[in-house]
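In response to reviewer comment 3 from the previous cycle, which asked for concrete evidence that the modeling workflow produces usable outputs, we include below a single protein chain processed end to end. The sequence was submitted unchanged, and the resulting structure tokens are shown without manual editing.
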Amino acid sequence: MKIIYNCYGGAHSSVVAAALHLGLLDNTRVPGEKELLELPLFDGTWEHDHGRLFFFGIDDKQREIYVLGKRNLGHQLNDLIHLAAQAAGITREEYLLVDALPYVNWLMVVGGYTSRRLHWERLGRPIVIRGIQTFYWQIVNKVEQVKKLVPITETKKWVLKNGANITVDRVLACRVVRSFWLAWGITGISLDFLAAMVNNE
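The workflow returned the following structure tokens.
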């Protein structure tokens, strides 16, 4: 099973969640600045990284943990991933999407924008870190819930058809789908099909 933690840029809340899941951060105390900055990808992704799944590690139940920056896809990410999974024959039991965006506060928004968009890392990073520390226990609680989950059997069929309501940035959407397939080692589906799927053709 693959667990995909996702947030706006894949640089802050999703990274902290993935790190907690894998035991890279202590879930009994708030981490310091040095601990956060030493995490892979923390405050380290750029716009061209959005939409790509980054492998973070394997947990104690042999589940693969990933981080994804979804930008403004919001809940449409779920539809996009479900359609990509259906097209590739991947069952719903093989992956879990975990939205880490609800655990982003205004400090993380301001700090993240300053650091990643404006490239003022020395100014933005301390603000992001303070935001993470403020919401740390909420992220801990969410991750603990996810770690206790067992694969869910779902009978609902996701049908690839017009009207899927995926009207999003096509470059980002194609990047998400391609990256999702690559996580399963799937390379045989044509990009023409991928583009048609994203464009609802």
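The longest helix spans residues 121-147. We consider this sufficient to address the reviewer's concern, and the full set will be provided in the supplementary archive.
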